[in-house]
Amino acid sequence: MRADLPTGTVTFLFTDIEGSTPLLHALGADGYADALAAHRRVLREAFDLHGGVEIDTQGDAFFVAFPTAPGAAAAALAATAALEAGPVRVRMGLHTGAPTVAHEGYVGVDVHRGARVAALAHGGQILISPPTASLLDGEHLEDLGAHRLKDFDGATRLFQLGGGTFPPLRTPGSVELPTPPTRFLGRERELYDAVSSWVAHTPRVLTIVGPGGTGKTRFAIELARLLADEADGATLFVPFAPVRDSSLVLQTIADRLGAPSAEPSGIAAAVGERRTHLVLDNLEHLLPGAAKPIAGLVAASPSLRLLATSREPLRVQGEVELELPPLADDEAVALFLERARAVRADAAETPAVGQICRRLDCLPLALELAAARTKLLAP
Question: Which CATH architecture has domain 10-161?
Fold first, then answer.
């Protein structure tokens, strides 16, 4: 168990960037990377100043714990003020509870409730749950009324901390994607290309293509997170590695969506008119048989857009292909060192590390496997 985690009554602060997709498209890969790094620096300075402990970060989102509600509120206000002049607008949510402390973090309903509160906010807005509000004497709080939190019964009264006028609270679609155990590194250029293609060409199917080990699944998950704001229906992950028969493709999708039937019309009825994104992962072993039913589904459901990963394109109408290359040399070294330091704290950048990365063709999977073995090597 981490020794630095607050225990007992804890206030959680969740953050996320509003409009990641258009921001990336507007700033370009390098500009977005710089803005993202500056945003992280500002947030971490505010968290540290007010006693926050960073629990997790996924992409452009933070999960932080504070021993007191006033400390969390002060950090949120300070970070929001510091970001006000820049291009990045961050939504925040605070919730207080008594979670269970596990080996690497917190578990319990309070964690999920805090994340749901933050998901309703607009960029620049700080939302507060009733338990947190009750601990903030003297703070200006605006009562926003009762709102439904996804996956929770009944309505919850929410409050806004600080000033500002915002539209009615957001009602985004659910985002149900795997949570990788390690953070996403590099690929800013490829993410920019993918978002640009998604915005400029509005493909019904965007297929991430590349050989095994290039990180197609991890890339697709990160891309789907960036694009999730556009999906007011849902963003869902559908793994096809366990599926061995291409005739089961639509049934697998129907089961994931809770559709009444596996016919394209049944799946389209479940999707309705709400924009829905599906990540169809690992399709190559089901091709070419999977192509026809997927094409039929796309034709039957105009609100559905697909992100697919495969070693070869699907070759269906409306598809745009994105070739995912190996990592750049500097990205490969950064990935290797990050993973190596998880098992060996003294791992350092040396010419040998660069040679290892190049010999492994800078493929993410090979790099991660090699990094895990560094603990077996002599210093």
Answer: 2-Layer Sandwich (3.30)
